[in-house]
Every structure is written in C-alpha cells, then in structure tokens.
C-alpha cells in the first residue's frame, strides 16, 4: 500500500501507470508559446538545491509526465523501478542540467522517503490554489490552462503541508492571467425523458414501496428516499409516491434511529426525510410520528469536539460531508426554522479560493479542492438561505469554468469525463440562479447519456443504469431542484417530454445490483490476457515486460480467496516459485531482495504468505528459505541516518508501512515461527492508537488513522490470538465500522475507496455476526463499483474504467477471508503451459534455476510492496487513483476529498 500511497503523492509518478524508457530533456517550447487558454505550464522548484523556480510549456498538453519533458526538464528513475520512476529532475538552464537530488543525497536505488522526494501539485484553469495530485504524472490528463508544480521536500499524509511556496497564478502563462468564466458549451440541445426515467425507477421498487438490493433483506432507505424525490419531480402526487412515502414514514425510526430511540439520531437521514416530507405536502415535525426537525435543531454543535461528531461550531452532529450539512440546513429552511448562523457559515467556510466547494467539512486553512457536484448543491442552499450573494456568484463562476464543451460537468478536479450526478446538481443550481443557457446545455448532455429503459449510469461511458445517479438526473430533467421540489405544482413550466433521447443510447441493460460483486466476472477480468501477461504476472504498465511482483501476488491472493480459477493460480505460483523471469529477466527475488543487503521484510512476508496459502513450503520457495529471511530481517534497533533500513526495534527491514509489518507477522506465525515473531508482533501492537483503536498507515507512525492498515493489523492480531490481541482486534473493528460512509463505502487516500471497502469487509468479517449490517452495506458498495468488464474502479468519485490494483483487492476482499486464514489447495491442478503474448513476439519462458535468474544484487522497493494491491493497496489517491472514483447522490463526491490519506495504501 505504501507504493500506492506514493503514487498518490506523485512520488511514483509515471511508474504507477506505465513503464517508460529513460526520459531525457526534450527541446522545450518557449514559455511564451503558452497562454492562459492554450497549452499547459509546469513549474519545478529547485530552491532546495540553490536554484529558482523554472517553468516549462507544452502547447499540446497530454499528460503531466509529457509536460515535464516537453517543458525542457529531464528525469531519472530508481534502479529498482527503472527510468519511469521519477527520482531526479534536471533543467538545462540550472547548473548545466544537473539532475537533483544528486547521488550523494539520494541514491535513487530504493523508493525515496516521504520526507524527501519530488511531490506533485496541480491547478486547473482559473484556480489559484494548489491541490495535492491524486494521480501520478502519467495518470494526470491535462487540458489547456492547467498548471503543474514539482517541489522537493516532504509532505504529510494528506498533502496539507509541503505545498509550493508560489501560487498557480505566479507561474501561469500570460503573467498570471486566467481565463474568464468558461465559454458557452457547444453540445447539442435535448430534454431528459423524465417519464421513462421514472418508469425505470418504479420498476426497481419492491412491492411498489421500497428499494431492496438483490440478495439483501433490508430496505435501502437512502435510495428509497432518493427515488421518492424523483417520483415527486416526475409525476407530482401519485399513488406510487404515496405508497413509498407511507413506507418510509412507517419505518422512520429504522432509518433515523438505527441504534435505538435512546441513541443519537442519524442526522443525515433525518435531513433527507424532512426534505421529502416538505416536498410532498407532509409535516417534517411529525413524519411517522417523529419530529425530524427536532432531530436537527437538537444536534447543532456549539464547539469543536471530534469525539462527539463535531468538527466545528455550527456542524450538525455526526455529519462529515458538506452536502449532508447543506441538506440539513435546507430542511430547516423549508420547515420555516431559522438555522443557526454558524450552521450556514460552515457552508461558506468550505468554499475554496477559486469558488469551488469541497465535499468535506474541513477546518479553515486546510487543503481545499472543490468539485462541481458539491459546489452545485451548496450554492443552491446558500442561494435559498439568502445573504450570501458573493459566495453564490463565485460558485456560479466556478461552475462556468468547469463545464465541458459537451455541457457536462466532471466529477472531480482535473477530470475531462462528464459525470451524471455532478452535471445534474450543477444544472439544478444554474437554473435556480438564472443561468438557463448553461443549465439547458447540461440537460442536453444528460439527455444524450440517458440509457435504454430510461435510467442513467454514473458517467458518459456507462452502459449500466444505477439507482444512485438516476434520481438526481430526474430532478434536473424535470427542471426543479431539491430546494423547490413540491407536489403542489400545477404544471411544469415546460412539461416533460416522453420523446426518446436525442441519440441512441447503449442497448446493454444492467442487472439489478446484488448483495456483493460478481466474483466470477471479477476473476475473469483478473485472469484475462489483457491483464495477466503470459498468464504468469501483471506488468507495471501497458506494453511493458517488467513484472509488478507485488501486484501479481495480490492477484494470486484474490484467486486463492475465490477458488474460481485454480489453474491460473497455479500458473502464477509456479512462475514465482520456479524463479521465472519477466521480460527484463527479473525474478521475484529481485523484488524481495531475499539474500541481499536490501532484503525487504514486507515483500518477503507477502511472498511467504502466498506460499503458505496455497500449500507450498515457505522455507523453500523461489530458491530461498523465506522464513529464515524474515527472521534475519527483524530489526534489533532503529537504524541511524543515512541508513534507513530499520524504523524501530521489532520492525522489518525496508518495511515502512503497517501493511508490510502485518503481512510479515502473519507469514511468521503461519510458519510456526512464533518466537521470532514476538518482537515484530509487539511492535505492531504498539502502533495501535490507544484511544480510537486505529492503526496509522506508515512506519514510523505519522499520527494518521487508516482503514486499510487497521484492517490488516486486526487480521494479524486475530491470527496471533490471546486476551490482549483479541481486545485490540475488538477496538479496531469498532473503529473501522465507525468510518463507514452512508453509501457503504469507506474513506481511503483515493476518496470513497474500493480498496478500503474491500479490506474493511475482510477486517469486519473477523466478527461477522456483530458487523453483518456493515459488511452487507460494504458489499453493496463494491457491487456498485464493478464495471461491465468485471473490473473495479479505484474509487467512487474517480475516473471511469477498471483498475487492476483495485480489482485484485475488491475480488479477494469481497470473500471476507482474512489473509491469516487464507487456504487454497492446488491439488488436482497441473503445471500450466506458458502461452505467447496475444500481440505476438517471442514468448516469455519460465526458466527456473538459470544462472542469471537469481537475486544477486537485487534492488527492492523500500516498502516491499511494488504497488501490490491487496496487500498493498488502499490508497489510491491515486495513482491508481484514479480516482476513481464518483458516486452517491448522497454525498458520493464528498469522498473525492476524503483521501485519508495517502500513505495508507501503499506499501502493502
């Protein structure tokens, strides 16, 4: 996971996405060739090396990686990961092009420490505040007017420190001028087919009154409420709407007081139901006999008290995301109640300098990165509240700049992909503030992505409709919004049309989401020729022959957990065990460093744990006694600079994450090596936060709390057993459950993270009877992130498409099987033939025992992860990031900022 985290930090840059040959300095275009609206600018701060800030220009920007080189900069990588891993940057005009840091400061052999590396910062057109990049340089897709910055030094886990000392406007083309609010979009006009969308929603109701996911027993109250909003917008008062509303009223306590009437209410649920009552001629003071307004007014925070669900004064207790705060404020306004001034002020406090509004209820001064969906909803509420014209105008200008030529809005900063939920909220707000041209353009785009059958997917490439995106699109299509929605309306200003969408939508019909993801499809994705090279290993990137051994082992874990393709699992295990070579002649020993001075305890433990899981002997695997190697890797004490091999007594060499530590501990325990595991186990136990029960992501600890790391640590302690360990596991699971988001997901560095949700399922399954509800919700969330090809997105609010790292974690994690108890017999399988690549060429042959197949002089990643997902994922902010991620009409975007954050995932 540490590697994933470093990807998110920008540290792994291109290597997180593709393996490229060396990157010498290109002939740079003059900076003057770029303008505020044409080309992109990159600024590299050589201040730590006695230089200044140097700028470069790319008039036809593609990726952050290409921007560096087209801008005239050179880069160098590490010995372990190759030239694509950005470890040094040079510039011809500074000190004759000397790349920095110089070898005497950083050998660029292993992954640089997070305290001294090139961090990556980005700003979109019009933004004058840096955002910590969610992508590596190859993953960031640029557009005209973008600005990138590279700064050498350190950052904290969330990227709130270490930012550039200069602003984007200081280095932007044209002397700091920025584009005016975006030009008018050119997409074709169109109207959403509201009637067919409503019909699709009605077809998803169980007994005509509630939404129940396939395979589940309990209703999904949140989606049922969202569906009711849509039905009110589409049909006004109707028998179906009355039936749904009556059902919710009858079950109000199940939704608002899930822990019992004597416990604090779920305020976000109270706000949603109050808005429904107010929109359907009901009484929010007495909805199903419950005073929902009192649930809100009685839970306004008067001071900062995080332990009591209060981030700041004015917060509605236990609300974390800005969109939920906005709904609570709006519910009070619509009920005729005057919200506390501090509650409304909290909405203005999360507005960024560029006018965008971030999804998290941050503290003043914290890193702020807005998105169109959150900005739309909060601006709508501020507009309704009145007295905040400046904030609304700034938000409107931000939305104008974010709108794409197609009329769509992206789901997160830097994306160029249209997102249905963001576009629908933006359209509602733009229409409410009088910008009908942009609202019409947004609706036109929505009409073009409406699917056959009437539903909507998450984005422009979706072929499967979803209950998360469709309701909010219906409100936009009906030309109303959650602030004015009512069944009392006489006629719409322009009656909804029932004509088909202006373009023919995809014909694929989506199945109703089940209790969990489709593991058969997931395994098919993981074992497909497009992913699994030579049916033996996963490469570091498309077209590369270099194996990502950590990721390959993650895939093997997933196959072992499901048991759905033992033949392919056998092929991977044989390749590793027989010291098979990748396209560059490397074996797994070159990754673990076993037998060398760079032995990475986490990587060795991860490999040994796979051997144990499939019945191989970890004391004779890949030509090494991996258990003896682990024993040797236990640190007797912390090393002193410049030696960074040992973080502390009981840590493993070159294992800088809790994930690495936990995997290695489990490997020793499963091998019966309990005595030698005592010190590493004690160190792992010492890292737990005594108060919360959570574990940090990095070693040495940095003070953060991470779902992924807490889950893997709990698995290790559960395997160890004993009164003390069991108590620690209990606290850990309770903390994990407390972090679950309303849609069932969990926060990770990438946002509402697939990796974090999958690991949470594994962790909570250690006590599945107690946490059945949370597990079911997380499985439902994972099902919602699975794509048609069987793979998974990185995160809900991230870029579309399947991510291999996230997919390995999702498939394995969805089974709920702990790494400590993973067991898959390969009896009945046989050695697999080595196929040739689909693209042709000389096939790679597994060559065990070749003279040059050993690990002599092997160089390994400092984290021992090589980006492995299962045991190494979690964060993805992405670099994998992607960030994928996107979703819930309920605050899905909220998670875009919830990258809590980086460090967690990597290094696993």
Characterise the protein shown here.
The protein is 35% helix and 5% strand. With 908 residues, it is mainly alpha-helical. Helix 18 runs parallel beside helix 21. It is globular.
The amount of helix comes to 25-40%
Name the strands of the widest sheet in spatial order: 2-1-7-5-6
The oligomerization state is single chain
Structural class: mainly alpha
Cα-atom radius of gyration: 27 Å
Tally of individual helices: 29
The percent range for strand residues is: 5-15%
State mean pLDDT (0 to 100 scale): 83
The geometry reads as globular
Characterize the biggest β-sheet: 5 strands, mixed
End-to-end distance, in Å? 4 Å
User: Low-confidence parts lasting 5 or more residues at pLDDT below 50?
Assistant: 1-26, 176-182, 490-514, 837-907
Relevant terms:
single chain, 908 residues, mainly alpha, two-stranded antiparallel sheet, disordered N terminus
């Amino acid at each position: 996971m540490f590697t994933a985290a470093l990807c998110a930090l920008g540290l792994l840059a291109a290597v997180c996405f593709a393996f490229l040959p060396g990157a010498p300095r290109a002939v740079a275009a003059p900076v003057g060739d770029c303008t505020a609206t044409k080309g992109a600018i990159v600024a590299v701060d050589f201040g730590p090396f006695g230089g200044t800030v140097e700028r470069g220009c790319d008039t036809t920007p593609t990726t952050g990686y290409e921007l560096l080189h087209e801008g005239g900069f050179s880069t160098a990588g590490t010995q372990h990961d190759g030239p694509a891993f950005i470890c040094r940057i040079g510039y011809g005009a500074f000190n004759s092009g000397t790349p920095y840091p110089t070898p005497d400061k950083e050998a660029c052999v292993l992954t640089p420490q997070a305290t001294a590396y090139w961090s990556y910062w980005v700003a979109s057109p019009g933004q004058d505040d840096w955002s910590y990049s969610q992508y590596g340089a190859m993953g960031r897709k640029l557009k005209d007017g973008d600005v990138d910055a590279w700064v050498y030094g350190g950052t904290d886990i969330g990227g709130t420190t270490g930012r550039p000392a200069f602003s984007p406007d200081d280095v932007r083309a044209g002397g700091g001028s920025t584009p005016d609010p975006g030009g008018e979009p050119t997409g074709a006009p169109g109207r959403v087919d509201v009637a067919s969308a409503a019909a699709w929603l009605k077809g998803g109701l169980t007994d005509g009154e509630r939404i129940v996911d396939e395979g589940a027993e309990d209703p999904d109250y949140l989606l049922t409420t969202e569906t009711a909003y849509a039905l009110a917008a589409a049909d006004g008062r109707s028998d179906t709407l009355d039936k749904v509303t009556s059902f919710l009223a009858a079950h109000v306590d199940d939704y608002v007081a899930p822990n019992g009437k004597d416990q604090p209410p779920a305020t976000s649920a109270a706000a949603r139901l109050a808005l429904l009552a107010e929109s359907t001629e009901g009484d929010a003071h007495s909805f199903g006999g419950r005073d929902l307004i009192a649930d809100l007014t009685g839970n306004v925070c008067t001071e900062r008290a995080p332990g009591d669900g209060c981030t700041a004064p004015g917060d509605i207790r236990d609300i974390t995301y800005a969109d939920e705060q906005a709904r609570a404020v709006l519910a009070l306004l619509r009920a005729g109640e005057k919200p506390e001034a501090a509650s409304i002020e909290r909405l203005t406090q999360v507005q960024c300098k560029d006018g965008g509004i971030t999804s998290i209820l941050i503290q003043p001064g914290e890193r702020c990165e807005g998105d169109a969906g959150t900005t739309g909803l909060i601006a709508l509420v501020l507009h309704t509240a009145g007295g905040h014209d400046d904030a609304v105008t700034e938000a409107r200008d931000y939305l104008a700049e974010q709108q794409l030529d197609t009329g769509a809005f992206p789901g997160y900063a830097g994306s160029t992909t249209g997102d249905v939920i963001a576009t629908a909220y933006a359209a509602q707000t733009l229409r409410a503030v009088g910008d009908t041209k942009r609202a019409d353009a947004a609706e036109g785009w929505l009409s073009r992505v409406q699917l056959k059958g009437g539903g909507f997917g998450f984005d422009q490439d979706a072929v499967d409709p979803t209950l998360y995106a469709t309701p909010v699109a219906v409100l936009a299509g009906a030309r109303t919004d959650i602030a004015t929605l009512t069944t009392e309306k006489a006629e719409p200003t322009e009656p909804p049309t029932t004509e088909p969408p202006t373009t023919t939508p995809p014909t694929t019909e989506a199945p109703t989401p089940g209790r969990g993801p489709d593991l058969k499809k997931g395994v098919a994705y993981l074992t497909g020729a497009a992913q699994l090279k030579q049916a033996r290993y996963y490469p570091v990137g498309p077209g590369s022959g270099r194996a990502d051994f950590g990721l390959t082992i993650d895939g093997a874990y997933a196959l072992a957990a499901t048991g759905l393709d033992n033949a392919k699992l056998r092929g991977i295990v044989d390749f590793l065990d027989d010291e098979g070579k990748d396209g560059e002649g490397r074996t797994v020993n070159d990754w673990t460093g076993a037998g060398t001075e760079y032995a990475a305890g986490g990587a060795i433990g991860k490999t040994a744990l796979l051997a144990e899981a499939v019945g191989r002997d970890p004391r004779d695997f890949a030509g090494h006694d991996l258990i003896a190697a682990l024993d040797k890797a236990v640190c007797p004490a912390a090393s002193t600079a410049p030696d960074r091999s040992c973080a502390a007594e009981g840590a493993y060499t070159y294992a800088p994450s809790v994930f690495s530590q936990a995997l290695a501990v489990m490997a020793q325990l499963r091998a019966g090596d309990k005595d030698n595991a005592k010190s590493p186990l004690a160190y792992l136990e010492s890292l737990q936060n005594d108060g919360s029960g959570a574990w940090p992501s990095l070693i040495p600890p940095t003070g953060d709390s991470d779902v992924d790391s807490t889950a893997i640590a709990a698995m290790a302690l559960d395997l160890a057993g004993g009164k003390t360990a069991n108590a620690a596991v209990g606290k850990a699971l309770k903390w994990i459950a407390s972090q679950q988001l309303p849609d069932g997901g969990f926060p990770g560095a990438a946002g509402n993270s697939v990796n974090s949700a999958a690991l949470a399922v594994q962790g909570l399954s250690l006590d599945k009877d107690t946490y059945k509800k949370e597990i079911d919700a997380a499985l439902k969330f994972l099902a919602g992130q699975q794509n048609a090809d069987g793979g998974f997105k990185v995160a809900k609010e991230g870029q579309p498409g399947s991510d291999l790292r996230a997919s390995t974690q999702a498939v394995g994690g969805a089974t709920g099987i702990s790494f400590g108890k993973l067991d898959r017999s390969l009896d009945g399988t046989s050695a697999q033939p080595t196929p040739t690549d689909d693209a042709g060429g000389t096939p790679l042959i597994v060559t065990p025992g070749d003279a040059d197949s050993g690990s002599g002089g092997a160089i390994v990643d400092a984290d021992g992860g090589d980006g492995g997902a299962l045991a190494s994922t979690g964060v993805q902010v992405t670099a994998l990031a992607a960030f994928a991620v996107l979703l819930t009409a309920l605050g899905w975007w909220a998670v875009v900022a919830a990258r809590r954050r980086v460090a967690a995932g990597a290094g696993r």
